[in-house]
Amino acid sequence: MPLDHRRLRGPEESQPPEVWAAAAGAGGAAAAEEEEAAAAAAAEEARDPCALRPLFARAGLLSQAEGSAYVELGGGTKVLCAAWGPREAAAEPGGGAAAGGRLVCEFRRAPFAGRGPRAAAGREAEREAAAALREALEPAVRLARYPRARLAVSALLLQDGGSALAAAVSAAALALADAGVEMYDLAVGCALCRPPGAAAAWLLQPSEPEERRAAARLTVALLPSLNQVSGLLGGGQGGPPDSWAQALRLGLDGCHRLYPVLRQSLLRAARRRAAPSTA
Amino acid sequence: MASVVLSEAEKLYIVHGVQEDLRVDGRGCEDYRCAEVETDVVSNTSGSARAKLGHTDILVGVKAEMGTPKLEKPDEGYLEFFVDCSANATPEFEGRGGEELGTEIANTLYRIFSSESCVDLKSLCINPREHCWVLYVDVLLLECGGNLFDAISIAVKAALFNTRIPKVRVLEDEEGSKEIELSDDPYDCIRLNVDEVPCVVTLSKIGYRHVVDATLQEEACSLASLLISVTSKGALTCMKKVGKGSLDPESIFEMMETGKRVGKSLHTSLQKILDEEESLGTTRQKVGFLG
Amino acid sequence: MAALELLSDEGYRADGRRAAELRKVRARMGVFAQADGSAYIEQGNTKALAVVYGPHEMRGSRSKALHDRALVNCQYSMATFSTSERKRRPHGDRKSSEMTLHLKQTFEAAILTQLYPRSQIDIYVQILQADGGNYCACVNAATLAVIDAGIPMRDYVCASSAGFVEDTPLADLSYIEEASGGPQVALALLPTSEQIALLEMNSRLHEDHLEEVIEAASKACKAVHAVLDQVVRDHVQEVTALLGD
């Protein structure tokens, strides 16, 4: 067989050494892991399940995109979003059944977003997140006003510190609004998770370690002034409907509390844009 | 999906009917269409099933193949889902046309089965870190007449129920090298416990009410639906909003309650059919597509 | 390893058939309601589904339309669980593209395409379980589906394979016979006029034997034709009985 001498061929799959280390040196490593888990549990005890993480949002920061937004959650989730207003759509696949425009969403994780390589489920997870993003935004945008046009939103997750999809929904809605797209309302995203254990309560806006340990997760997107749920995606260990309903209520409450912050940032962006022309 | 074009009058007719709890085909809002389920339809799989719900026709084949366990879970096997939206269902799926829908459904299936209690994955492990059974669950869409997700979940559950995995033994010689020996007896096999495998119930919002098991026409009238997966005990394992519209929080709570109720009865009737088929054993006349 | 005995001294094949004997053929038309025509066929353990849409307006680019006849568009796919080793893709690989092309050629020869200028006929076949003779099962299923769709054809197209082992031609090869690597002929025949729609041969066969093998295959095709004809007649009778009520 001819060999390619120009490059060294590594194994097709690479594996982080931690996984093996944990099993081999069962004593020390396992103990350390347990400690970590205990610490996390203790932190959970101390944490108020209804507490929201501080949110920073800024709209209109990219000059090339028509609309853009950056959302950061305290604890390290950073999402950058750009939106492009109506463009003429290429021949629509599947016939012209839809009278309105199309919203095209993209969700990407930066290669440095998470800890360790996440190549395994990467592409599929990105695609699912993009579909969820589209479902959450579609009800908010007045697509009927843009017949045969195409609106594009691209979200880039710079750092994953938990609740990434929720942050992306908020950022994408801000970016669309910043691009001057006609909308009914902003979509606000909020994530929740339930730690393992029968009686565990749902936590609002989980951090990345909390999310990793979680038995069940839920992401809610709300149009606050219409009080309509535009997106809902969750799964995990089964629970009675009441428990999920409670989670939903908590999430909606969180969305309502986040809404003013997002509106403020949009207003600020509009003022900033208006300022140079008046001066 | 075969596209349906409805006039405003037709839509109004359906919406008003739903308001009165009487649907176009005579069902109430919480009634399923007549479902047909048959297991063991493809003989060279480990388990297979065909589910027919109205015009929606799904064939599922499960193949057990040996693989290496995932690193994070060295003592468990795993499930792989693949959905083939074949051109049989509609010409739009020709070539790569069905891929998008296929991956979307597969992702939803992964999400539904993400709960650890669904299938006992530990029983699929042959030898930790080295060998495990990988169950390839391949879904083939033959015809879609609305309510794909529910029909697929029914077929998947039936196929998993039907799955028989040959028993293997691990032999270790003095040098520590391991050898895997397949049991000689073809009837000596592992069965999966499917009690905890959830079924999907899709509730479509039409007007002010919601219906289960919507037909294509009804789906065209509905702006948004809620997809929930329910186990036989009534626990929710997955929740997802699908469609272009949005939902009122109050109606979501109602839909969840309805979904739980409907899902439980769906599980009971499905289990009854499966047990009945099982009891007939080899005497059962296989119908397949000839019936 | 001793080679598998494909033909015993007594003249029986591995699955107990005689050299010229076919596997059991069972078929049904009108399996699906949404398609214009559909059919399902079982030839032994090979199971195939065929669906026909059309004739309809051209889909996609109109530049492909033929001004004097209809375009026959085929797709051959195999369910991922149809073979004993799981397949990774249902279609799009080289083998299924080749099959697609063969089917297209076969049906272009049989359908009266000149009746439908500027339109398109879609034939989609799906192998649900593969046990040799996939092409033949597909052609037979597609013939029934085309008839079910009411598209006029010159004649039935019936297909059968044939092999050659120990100086004897074998009709309707099963998977093990195909896999043994002997010569293989696939023949699609219009039985009444005895015209050949497609003939394909693999591997090596002495010229002198070719005629015998083709003869065996065409005999098998005619036997298949008798079965298919019966299926069509039964189906039509059933449907008219339903209409009569």
TrEMBL record, chain A:
<dbReference type="InterPro" id="IPR020568">
    <property type="entry name" value="Ribosomal_Su5_D2-typ_SF"/>
</dbReference>
<keyword id="KW-0539">Nucleus</keyword>
<dbReference type="InterPro" id="IPR050080">
    <property type="entry name" value="RNase_PH"/>
</dbReference>
<feature type="domain" description="Exoribonuclease phosphorolytic">
    <location>
        <begin position="52"/>
        <end position="182"/>
    </location>
</feature>
<protein>
    <submittedName>
        <fullName>Exosome complex component MTR3</fullName>
    </submittedName>
</protein>
<feature type="region of interest" description="Disordered">
    <location>
        <begin position="1"/>
        <end position="36"/>
    </location>
</feature>
<dbReference type="InterPro" id="IPR027408">
    <property type="entry name" value="PNPase/RNase_PH_dom_sf"/>
</dbReference>
<dbReference type="InterPro" id="IPR036345">
    <property type="entry name" value="ExoRNase_PH_dom2_sf"/>
</dbReference>
<keyword id="KW-0963">Cytoplasm</keyword>
<comment type="similarity">
    <text>Belongs to the RNase PH family.</text>
</comment>
<dbReference type="Pfam" id="PF01138">
    <property type="entry name" value="RNase_PH"/>
</dbReference>
<dbReference type="InterPro" id="IPR001247">
    <property type="entry name" value="ExoRNase_PH_dom1"/>
</dbReference>
<keyword id="KW-0698">rRNA processing</keyword>
<keyword id="KW-0271">Exosome</keyword>
<keyword id="KW-0694">RNA-binding</keyword>
UniProtKB/TrEMBL annotation, chain B:
<dbReference type="GO" id="GO:0005730">
    <property type="term" value="C:nucleolus"/>
</dbReference>
<dbReference type="Pfam" id="PF01138">
    <property type="entry name" value="RNase_PH"/>
</dbReference>
<dbReference type="GO" id="GO:0016075">
    <property type="term" value="P:rRNA catabolic process"/>
</dbReference>
<dbReference type="GO" id="GO:0000177">
    <property type="term" value="C:cytoplasmic exosome (RNase complex)"/>
</dbReference>
<dbReference type="GO" id="GO:0071038">
    <property type="term" value="P:TRAMP-dependent tRNA surveillance pathway"/>
</dbReference>
<feature type="domain" description="Exoribonuclease phosphorolytic">
    <location>
        <begin position="32"/>
        <end position="166"/>
    </location>
</feature>
<comment type="subunit">
    <text>Component of the RNA exosome core complex (Exo-9), composed of EXOSC1, EXOSC2, EXOSC3, EXOSC4, EXOSC5, EXOSC6, EXOSC7, EXOSC8 and EXOSC9; within the complex interacts with EXOSC2 and EXOSC4. The catalytically inactive RNA exosome core complex (Exo-9) associates with the catalytic subunit EXOSC10/RRP6. Exo-9 may associate with DIS3 to form the nucleolar exosome complex, or DIS3L to form the cytoplasmic exosome complex. Exo-9 is formed by a hexameric base ring consisting of the heterodimers EXOSC4-EXOSC9, EXOSC5-EXOSC8 and EXOSC6-EXOSC7, and a cap ring consisting of EXOSC1, EXOSC2 and EXOSC3.</text>
</comment>
<dbReference type="InterPro" id="IPR036345">
    <property type="entry name" value="ExoRNase_PH_dom2_sf"/>
</dbReference>
<comment type="similarity">
    <text>Belongs to the RNase PH family.</text>
</comment>
<dbReference type="GO" id="GO:0034475">
    <property type="term" value="P:U4 snRNA 3'-end processing"/>
</dbReference>
<dbReference type="GO" id="GO:0000467">
    <property type="term" value="P:exonucleolytic trimming to generate mature 3'-end of 5.8S rRNA from tricistronic rRNA transcript (SSU-rRNA, 5.8S rRNA, LSU-rRNA)"/>
</dbReference>
<dbReference type="GO" id="GO:0034476">
    <property type="term" value="P:U5 snRNA 3'-end processing"/>
</dbReference>
<feature type="domain" description="Exoribonuclease phosphorolytic">
    <location>
        <begin position="197"/>
        <end position="261"/>
    </location>
</feature>
<dbReference type="InterPro" id="IPR050590">
    <property type="entry name" value="Exosome_comp_Rrp42_subfam"/>
</dbReference>
<dbReference type="GO" id="GO:0000176">
    <property type="term" value="C:nuclear exosome (RNase complex)"/>
</dbReference>
UniProtKB/TrEMBL annotation, chain C:
<dbReference type="GO" id="GO:0005730">
    <property type="term" value="C:nucleolus"/>
</dbReference>
<dbReference type="GO" id="GO:0071028">
    <property type="term" value="P:nuclear mRNA surveillance"/>
</dbReference>
<dbReference type="InterPro" id="IPR020568">
    <property type="entry name" value="Ribosomal_Su5_D2-typ_SF"/>
</dbReference>
<protein>
    <recommendedName>
        <fullName>Exosome complex component RRP41</fullName>
    </recommendedName>
</protein>
<feature type="domain" description="Exoribonuclease phosphorolytic">
    <location>
        <begin position="155"/>
        <end position="220"/>
    </location>
</feature>
<dbReference type="GO" id="GO:0034475">
    <property type="term" value="P:U4 snRNA 3'-end processing"/>
</dbReference>
<dbReference type="InterPro" id="IPR050080">
    <property type="entry name" value="RNase_PH"/>
</dbReference>
<keyword id="KW-0007">Acetylation</keyword>
<dbReference type="GO" id="GO:0005654">
    <property type="term" value="C:nucleoplasm"/>
</dbReference>
<feature type="domain" description="Exoribonuclease phosphorolytic">
    <location>
        <begin position="21"/>
        <end position="152"/>
    </location>
</feature>
<dbReference type="InterPro" id="IPR015847">
    <property type="entry name" value="ExoRNase_PH_dom2"/>
</dbReference>
<dbReference type="Pfam" id="PF03725">
    <property type="entry name" value="RNase_PH_C"/>
</dbReference>
<keyword id="KW-0271">Exosome</keyword>
<dbReference type="InterPro" id="IPR036345">
    <property type="entry name" value="ExoRNase_PH_dom2_sf"/>
</dbReference>
<dbReference type="GO" id="GO:0016075">
    <property type="term" value="P:rRNA catabolic process"/>
</dbReference>
